[in-house]
Structure formats: C-alpha cells, structure tokens
Design goal:
Length: 133
C-alpha cells in the first residue's frame, strides 16, 4: 500500500470521527484512487480487492463511511499478500461468509443485501425482529 493512500485513509478516518457531513465524495475519490493504484501496480484488480472496493462503494451509498474505509484498507492490505496467503485467505473469507449468512434467520433477499453490504448486520436483525425480512 502506498504511503500516500495510507495517509489519506488515516486523514479521512480522523475527519469522520468528527462527523460524516460532506465526506462522501472524498471517500469515493479514495476508492477510485485505490482502484487506480491496484491497476498501476498489478495491471488489474484481483477478485478479493474488487469485492472489497465494490463493498466500499455500497457502504458510501448507505452512508457507512467508516465501514467503507475499512473495506478500502482491506483491499489494499490483501493486495500485499503472497499468492498462497491470498488464495487461502479468500477461500476462508468466502467459507466464513457463507456460514454466517446460512445461520441468519432472515429472508434470502436480506441475506443478499447483507452480503452486498447494502444493509448492516444490525439492520438485518432488526428487519427480522419486526417481521419485515
């Protein structure tokens, strides 16, 4: 991960600790720059990083900006993994996600929305408790 992106992550995180207003565009720009960084370093965006960056964009759309920063950070960190660490890690990540989603007592649509980062786990539980999921 470049120092420039790391510094921006920290800077935006500090700004978000004071409030979310007017920071959505800044987070979206960071996501775009992270994509450009990955393409410039590797010539492509690998599956795990792509998933994390897509998730980051979904989080911005839902105004979960700190979660978005975490997803960007994860994408940049896993890009540094060795091939063995990467493919073992993504397999474990997918297996854990499937197990987690399988154990939830909510509708398939809410599970899909949760997996895509469109709603939070707490929101999914609330929907289920109210009979809407």
């Amino acid at each position: 991960m470049s120092n420039k992106l790391q510094d921006r992550l920290i800077d935006i995180g500090e700004k978000l600790s004071k409030g979310y207003e007017s920071h959505q565009e800044e987070v979206l720009l960071l996501i775009s720059d992270a994509r450009k960084d990955l393409i410039s370093r590797f010539g492509m965006i690998a599956p795990w990083e792509s998933e994390e960056l897509d998730l980051a964009e979904n989080y911005v759309g839902a105004n979960f900006l700190k979660a978005s920063l975490l997803a960007v950070y994860t994408a940049l960190v896993v890009s540094e993994y060795s091939d063995e660490e990467y493919w073992v890690g993504i397999a474990i990540h997918i297996k854990m996600l499937r197990k987690f989603l399988g154990e939830l007592k909510i509708s398939w649509f809410s599970k899909y929305r949760l997996a895509m980062g469109l709603i939070s786990f707490q929101r999914a539980r609330d929907l289920h408790a109210c009979g809407f999921a």
